[in-house]
Amino acid sequence: MTDNEKILYDDGTHKCVMFGFDDESHEDSFLSVNQYLIVQNGSGVLVDPGSEAIFDDLYEAVSRHVEIENIKFIFLSHQDPDVSGSIAQWAISTKAKFIMSALWVRFMSHYGFMEMSRIMSLADHGAKLKFGNDYLKFVPAHFLHSPGNFTLYDSRSKIVFSGDIGAAVVTSPEDYKHVDNFEKHVEFLHGFHKRYMGSNKLCRAWVSHVQKLDVDIIAPQHGLIFEEKNVKLFLEWLNELQCGSDFMSELY
């Protein structure tokens, strides 16, 4: 296993892997980006596979954990290029179905993806998908960065793959780990969430849904993962966060 990989869960049958591949050629705009893979009994689900620039590196890394032809689903939490930019390459390389909000289906052609029959579009209230002996739950997170946004809950590992919710603006390699000190970590969370999350009301709606689930880890698309007590601390923090339209007077 390389420095760009971290096993989040492995019980011998079901495994979740975190990758950390970034487009390092653009140092001035560098942002830590995470990609995720869920594997059960040799079948895979790829979560937020990222931009075209990292496709080759991620393809090689994923292939060490699952046969590429056995990737059944590729989930895109929202439309941004650091999530969806490589969709055309993964479409060529796999036979996977692509899961995304119904709002973004028509925009995928702008990434060079034309096989609309391979898209499983999510209605606003989300969905539950059987995966092996367990299930994947697509939890609505609308306007928490994107107007058509979903987070993914894996019932076996008890991980919420939260997209930009929980994202932290960290850049150095040593930051590629879990949160140790939540109070210190808030300084990396606050600026991003204040601007990119829609409002406190929307934060509370998502937190309410997630608190009904049995969650051990929250794994965002940028920055560090939340484990153990930090899951509860993050949800409590987000539940009280003033953000987005709560600051309209500052923006207009």
Describe the secondary-structure layout:
Elements: E1 5-10, E2 14-19, E3 35-40, E4 43-47, H1 55-63, E5 71-75, H2 81-84, H3 87-93, E6 97-101, E7 119-122, E8 127-131, E9 134-140, E10 150-154, E11 159-163, H4 182-196, H5 200-210, E12 217-220, E13 226-227, H6 229-240, H7 248-251
Parallel strand pairs: 4-5, 5-6, 6-7, 11-12
Antiparallel strand pairs: 1-2, 2-3, 3-4, 8-9, 9-10, 10-11, 12-13
Helix pairs in contact: 5-6
Key phrases:
single chain, 7 helices, 13 strands, 25% helix, 26% strand, globular
Characterise this structure.
- Strands 1-2-3-4-5-6-7 form a 7-stranded mixed beta sheet, with helices on one face. It has a 6-stranded mixed beta sheet with strand order 8-9-10-11-12-13.
- The model has no long low-confidence stretch (mean pLDDT 92).
- It is built from 7 helices and 13 strands.
- Helix 5 (200-210) packs antiparallel against helix 6 (229-240).
- The chain has a single domain, classed as Ribonuclease Z/Hydroxyacylglutathione hydrolase-like (Metallo-beta-lactamase, Chain A), CATH 3.60.15.10.
- It is an alpha/beta fold and 252 residues long.
